[in-house]
Design goal:
The structure is a homodimer. Chain A is of the alpha/beta class. In chain A, 30% of the residues lie in helices and 24% in strands. Chain A has eleven helices and 15 strands. In chain A, helix 4 packs parallel to helix 5. The longest helix of chain A has 17 residues. The N and C termini of chain A lie far apart (46 Å). At the A-B interface, strand 7, strand 8, strand 9, strand 10 and strand 11 of A face strand 7, strand 8, strand 9, strand 10 and strand 11 of B.
């Protein structure tokens, strides 16, 4: 985990210490299934780097299984979901199903006595939220979510450390932009709103999770939300733009904008940014690229009483979420992310989606 | 005015051509009065650089008049407002009164047959808007506004040129941040909400004016707004934070955040930014500082099909508004800014202020 140095001169803040494996080999066995979204590779990488062993993989599409096995040859292809759910050695199932199927899968996983680690967005309806909450409570299992745009971004992790240590005072406003490249080769479900859940529910979930995390809000009201399809008339159910304004239960405010409009001229898939305004300073993240420079991504810019500081975070912070998640599963703690937080972010992104007014021009 | 070069290789866009004086010496005579806000110097500078002659200055405070005369010795101290309003040679009155007095002054100026050029925010109530609209219509005079965070920022001017020339397609979203340093020595009216109008009405007016300008919206709905005092309990009527979300009549959306929380560690009075999302690219402005670098302010970053480009605009674009305003006054045209636009931005910032929910934490 990253820590602040104690000095108070100009260049004060630097991340130190990357996470290490948190368990003995073989102590934490997991499986991967429902490989519908490529995020399953990020989920698997994170768990493996923190000491987890991927024992099984299952998907109804053998080609996806074969591809997974080329990357993780230690895994075995399961014959069915049931084979994984019936294996008492498996402690957690990582999955990246089609979004509107994620809740049902998670409930089956938890009812089989295992923790669940799903790609975001973790669900697409308020019914899903209620059912998943009930199942988690009934089974005592975890329904954890791969909110990758924070959990798998070193600058985003370090920003959380800085906030926690008071580097910018109380965080009163969060602005996030999550532009994404549409590209080619997206599956059919990507363009079907019932299946992907709408843009605010889908990639908006990263944003709301960030807001809750950085401000410490435990709930929020969606005060405005908009969605539109501005540049993709051929796929009318794709929302290529969405934005929303929220007010947290602690008075902090949030705005985010997400889109599928990244220009072909950008060297990255998206110019994702995060702006934290505190009562005593501000932080900006240039997550994936620092446009027009060769700085690389993961640039954290901090302005506070100590001056202006640029802290390149790539390779210096690591991704402590995964090790904490493994420990949480083994120890039945909540150090990586509370269950309440994971569900609240899911609930709010669905509420934003439901509240959204359609715009066009 | 800035123009695009015709080439289509990587570094395509560069501003060329600064405005020159637009009239003969003595052809455009103006006066300055109501020096309550220091913006009067920016207003006066802009008009003088474009060829205007500042003949008179008036303020009830002789010290402010004396200070003005040290900067512009060609001006004469008038004995009263009436002396200026009665001078047929004066074509325009520039003023920076206490905000809630700006409308009444402007109406007197227009009724005296002169155009009015006020500091933003141009008024603080919807009654003011109605009265000023009626007076402008009745007199045929102009009620123009110094929305300085666009009009007096070269990168902001060049962004408008790029948008107009289609560099990023249709602009569908505008995010603006307008942090300001509170500092010391602010006058009493600055802390009295009736007088300054509230933060969304005051410095929020810059933001909404930008939104209308860059998107071409002629009207908008305020869909959410918040204000708060997070760090200045000793001056409870000061709103040190505000944000708002708007939807334009053309479907474009807008979010802005303004505050008086600039950290002492920032080398500038504010890290003002503007983000324009288009259907074919995006533009970012780092208006006053490019934090952690020595690039200076007025950095325009453009991402579109031609790649990523950084265009330093300082000293290269100039401020065409002022010359156009002078020509508009002489020729009775609307090339600098339409009256409808100036009033609509004023109306919307007041509506945002009226809609604002108070937040605290």
């Amino acid at each position: 985990m990253s820590t602040l140095s104690g000095s108070t001169n100009g260049m004060t803040y630097a991340p130190t210490g990357k996470p290490q494996p948190v368990c003995q080999p073989g102590e934490f066995v997991f499986a991967a299934m429902a490989l519908d979204h490529g995020h399953i590779y990020g989920q698997t990488n994170g768990l493996r780097e923190a000491g987890g062993i991927c024992k099984w993989v299952y998907d109804s599409d053998p080609a996806r299984v074969a591809n997974f096995l080329t990357k993780y040859p230690e895994a075995k292809a399961a014959r069915s979901e049931a084979e994984i759910l019936g294996d008492p050695e498996v402690k957690l199932v990582a999955a990246a199903a089609v979004p509107n199927l994620r809740a049902a899968l998670g409930i089956r996983v938890m009812q089989a006595g295992k923790d669940y680690f799903t790609d975001k967005t973790p669900m697409t309806t308020l019914d899903h939220v209620a059912q998943a909450r009930a199942a988690a409570a009934a089974t005592g299992r975890k329904y954890m979510v791969y909110y990758s745009e924070r959990l798998h971004v070193e600058s985003a992790i370090f920003a959380g450390d800085l906030v926690q240590q008071g580097a910018i005072g109380k965080v009163i406003n969060v602005i996030g932009t999550g532009p994404h490249r549409l590209g080619t080769g997206r599956p059919n479900w990507f363009f079907n709103k019932e299946q992907y859940g709408g843009i605010l529910c889908d990639i908006g979930s990263h944003q709301i999770e960030q807001f809750l995390h950085y401000t410490g809000a435990t709930d929020a009201r969606v005060v405005a939300a908009q969605v539109g399809n501005f540049a993709n008339q051929a796929t009318p159910e794709l929302e290529d733009f969405g934005d929303a304004n929220l007010v947290g239960d602690n008075g902090a405010t949030h705005y985010f904008r997400v889109d599928w409009l990244t220009s072909p001229g950008l060297r990255s898939w998206g110019d994702g940014r995060l702006f934290l305004l505190g009562t005593e300073g501000h932080i900006e993240l240039r997550k994936y690229i620092d446009i027009t420079t060769d700085n690389g991504g993961d640039q954290l810019l901090l302005v506070n009483k100590d001056g202006e500081q640029r802290i390149p975070c790539a390779g210096k912070v690591g991704f402590p979420f995964f090790g904490r998640l493994i420990r949480d599963c083994l120890d039945r703690t909540e150090t990586a992310m509370t269950q309440a937080h994971a569900f609240k972010a899911a609930e709010l992104c669905i509420k934003a989606q439901m509240a959204a007014v359609r715009v066009s021009r």
